[in-house]
Amino acid sequence: MKKTKQNNIKKYGGLYVGQRVDIRRKKLIEAGLESFGTLGYTKTTIKAICKISGLTERYFYESFKNKEELLGCVYQTIVDEITENAMNYLIKPSLEPKEIIEGAFGEYLGALWKDQRRARVLYFEVLGVSPEIDKKYRSAQDRMVDLVSFLISKISPEIKRESLNATIIPTGLAGAIIFMAERWVLDNYKTPLDDIVRQAVIIFESFEKLLKIETDLLDKLQDSN
Predict the structure, then answer these.
(1) Are residues 104 and 155 in the same domain?
(2) How many domains is the chain partitioned into structurally?
(3) Fewest CB atoms within 10 A around its CB: which of 71, 101, 184, 188?
(4) pLDDT digits (tens, 9 = 90+) for 116-171
(5) Do 92 and 108 belong together in one domain?
(6) Which of 64, 72, 82 lies closest to 134 in space, CA to CA?
């Protein structure tokens, strides 16, 4: 008879070992968000994380090698949740183009406004920590560019994908939205959420018009050749 894997052994409370590890890991991630998002990465200690989570250092090292790895996990969790929620608006079939744009940017910016710890980690606490964290930061920016490109394709299907990939305008648009959000956070959210979403929509529509002009010119040049 084969031995049951340790992760499937019930110990107490009706939970398997692996389930309890997952629960502890989630507690540490939430504690990391709280500490990084309020005290900041530099001032946060592993002891502080353990105190917030109600776990011992033994359980911290069960899931993470060090504070930097926890920061990377907290950051990735924020990026995944915000991106996925914004993407949900792009796959809704019944929405008008304007509603899709407003919904996507409303989800993205609304997440920062509702939980301001996220904004601090997303834009500031990850900067200059390490080459590994820098990679995660660049990867998140690339995902924002992909989100913008997908949004453009959804709103303006007449723009060919190859034409879209041949221009840097989606990158510029993503950068403009990120910079605008950073400034909004630094200004302590003085601009109401609805207004900042409306301004993001205006930026998007302006870039979209420029993109249509550029791709039309590229198409004409290709046809002439």
Answers:
(1) yes
(2) 2
(3) 188
(4) 999 999 999 999 999 999 999 999 999 999 888 888 887 777 777 777 777 788 88
(5) yes
(6) 72
